Amino acid sequence: MSLYEVPITKLSGIGEKRAALFRKLGIETVGDMISYYPRSYENWSDTTDIGNVQPEEKCVVRGKVMTPVNTIRISGGRTMAKLSISDDTGYLNLVFFNNKYISSMLRYGETYLFMGKVAYDKYGYQMVSPEFCKVTEGDTITPVYHLTAGLNNHMMIRAAKEALSMLPQTIHDPLPDDIRKRYDLCNLSYALNNVHFPTDLNAMEKARHRLIFEELLVLNLGMRMMKSQSHEQTAVHLLEDHTAEFIQTLPYELTNAQKRAISDCVADMRDKPSPMNRLIQGDVGSGKTAVCAAVCYHTVKNGFQAAFMAPTEILAQQHFETFSAMFADTDVRVELLTGSMTAAEKRKTRERIECGESDIVIGTHALVSESTAFCRLGCAITDEQHRFGVAQRARLASKGEHPHVLVLSATPIPRTLGLIIYGDLDITVIDELPPGRTEVDTFFIRTDKRDRALGFLKKQVEEGRQCYIVCPLVEESEGVDELQNATDYAAELMLGPFRDISVGILHGKMKPKDKEKVMAQFAANEISILVSTTVVEVGVDVKNATVMMIENADRFGLSTLHQLRGRVGRGQYKSYCILVSDNKGENTEQRLGVMCRTNNGFEIADMDLKLRGPGDFFGNRQHGLPQLDIADFSDTETLAQSQEAAQTLLRFSPDLSDGSLRALRAKMRRLFAETENTMN
Questions:
Q1: Which of 27, 274, 291, 538 is disulfide-compatible with 32, CB 3.0–4.6 A?
Q2: 538 and 384 Cβ atoms separated by less than 8 Å
């Protein structure tokens, strides 16, 4: 029996009540416990001299108890114990609260190891309630796990030890021997034992590297197999290239990158036996809409319909107006279908779509509802890919008989991550901006310059322009007083400097209908200043907006900041982005300085990956990828090796059916089991 079939209650001390706490962490079986890797480690052997400790830094010091423990009573019936320790370099005060055993645990004149965060006040350096152990026990590396209320780290350690003891003496390793030798990877048994309880730092690093490699390999295999499985025969062959005649109708010249993107799509739709499955990735303002319009025209002129799905009604309306203007002088019929239309309007629209009277249908999720049927769907397009998962994309494609699929993304992703996120897609990058698109000037200021910045916004409004102000929070939140929240900020502006200006507010807690209304008012210039959270990141195209001011800018990833900046500079007016932050962190100036230095989204994405790791790209699992246990996408070397290994294995056995790869196939199915990317 697999340990993934043995319930966690088989471990000693875990009854149904405690098992419920483990389940909150996603641990239901003994196998899950073994795969629940430590988030970090406490290395008691890595000590710092007391004379070198720094405030706010967690460290381990080796110190001799120099004073008896002095315990006093303080308010609320609590106790506080104080003592001092020293080494050859200095003294350090220790403070413990409500621990009546400290005086018997720490003996005067004895030397111990202490681990904790250092603080500094008028009495000097001190540690509050540090962990401690005898010097003879200080050569261990202790795992630290993510916890939930009711479970402490000692419970997790005990459960991990017992779970590991249940492993069979000989474990079948899912990685073939030649792969392990080629990439210098330890065996699975060594990795599992040393990732939880490493014998030393080298063993821990070897174990983690092996498990990270394996997890990235399994993810790569899954995404690549999805891509190969999508290569069914298509019933939609678009043989005649009509894009040149459409391009001639445009009042402007396309960039070479736009022409290349159109050419890639036409080649897919005309020459391949399988449907196009392509991502067009382009920075904000790079002209993806014109490329889509050309692809739609090509589809319609070959006798098929095209569907274009946008994430919000306001964006769908915007695209409908844009496409209607583009095709005004042609016989192409553009249709709009959204959830807010009346039942009668939707019924009539769907009738026209089903009988083939509509050529291009632009809409929201209403396009994938059961009641929407197409006559001859030839191409399915989704806008802002990171807002839709693979399943929604597949539902739209299911409206036709293997139609071509085109997806768009304005979120710049480093190429190494793009191969993972969009592993089931071919990728075209639009890396040029159309002529006349002006770069946004970006400035980084401290809060003491905020009033001056607000004065600049007021001047812009007086000149007829509009502005955004973005805050990290919706409303005041306990413990984060230093962060601006949109609700209070908007109120302060309405009562203060902008009392004579129309101020609107937009945030994620509002009902969709209310959000759409606010954005429509802003688009119509009925609101001059829009105070918002990041929900405006993917928003309506307001060409009159010229200033994006972002409070607590250090709290956002660079890619998010870049997306927000892309909301301005879309029209003829000079535009600006103002980043506000008082954070004195060592990389805040470096990160925000990148924003001031460049408007290139791909350069910014690469820097974001280096400085912040992959979290900004995968926050809230927005891309629908499986949840990983240990892998870190910023480890680009291991990522590249795993991609190379996946290619090698799939060349050897395209469906992983070879006996030596069955364990890998099983891990791949398990990894994808809880996502919308479920393997068939």
A1: 27
A2: yes
Locate tokens 């001092």: which residue? 84
Q: Does domain 243-430 have CATH number 3.40.640.10?
A: no
Helices (H), 256-342: 256-271, 288-301, 313-326
Determine phi and psi for 573, rounding to 5 degrees.
Answer: -95, 145
Instruction: Please tell me what DSSP assigns to residue 94.
Output: E
Which of 479, 586, 480, 552 has the alpha carbon at shortest distance from 57? 586
Q: pLDDT tens digit string along 246-286?
A: 999 998 899 999 999 999 999 999 988 888 989 898 877 78
Question: Alpha helices, DSSP H only, in 370-485?
Answer: 390-397, 415-421, 450-462
Retrieve residue 549's tokens.
Answer: 């001011």
Backbone angles phi, psi at 333, to 5 degrees: -100, 120
Q: In Å, how far are 346, 487, 498, 511, 574 from 517, measured between CA atoms?
A: 20, 17, 21, 10, 27
How far apart CA 557 and CA 609 sit, in angstroms, is: 9
**Cβ pair 403, 380 in contact under 8 A:** yes
Calpha distance 224→30 (Å, rounded)? 30
State how far the Cα of 616 lies from the Cα of 622, in Å rounded to an integer: 10
Quickly tell me which residue has 């315990």 as its tokens.
71
| Three-class SS state of 461 | helix
Cα 77 to the center of its chain, rounded Å: 46
CATH 3.40.50.300 applies to domain 441-598: yes
Pair 299, 306: CB distance under 8 Å? yes
The structure's pTM equals 0.64
Residue reference for tokens 């553009």? 334
Q: Do domains 243-430 and 441-598 have the same CATH topology?
A: yes
Token code pair at residue 152: 């402490």
String of b and e for 459-469 (b: at least 16 CB within 10 Å)? ebbeeebbbbb
CA distance 269 to 272: 6
Cα 466 off chain centre by? 30
CB 189 within 8 A of CB 169: no
Burial of 431 (0-12, 13-18, 19+ CB in 10 A): middle
Residue whose C-alpha is closest to residue 369's, from 409, 341, 333, 332:
341
Topology (CATH level 3) of domain 45-137:
OB fold (Dihydrolipoamide Acetyltransferase, E2P) (2.40.50)
Cβ-based burial of 204 (10 A; exposed 0-12, middle 13-18, buried ≥19) = buried
Structure tokens at 624: 């629908």
| The pLDDT value given to residue 619 | 43
Predicted pLDDT of residue 417: 67
Bridging pattern class, strands 70-74 and 90-97 = unpaired
Q: Provide Rg for the chain, Cα atoms.
A: 30
SS3 471: coil
Are the CB atoms for 588 and 553 separated by under 8 Å? no
Regions of the chain where pLDDT drops below 70: 1, 226-233, 384-393, 414-424, 436, 475-482, 537-540, 586, 610-627, 632-634, 673-680
Burial of 375 (0-12, 13-18, 19+ CB in 10 A): middle
pLDDT at 6: 96
pLDDT at residue 674 in the model: 53
Helix (H) / strand (E) element for 279: namely strand 277-282
Count CB atoms within 10 A of the CB of residue 203.
18
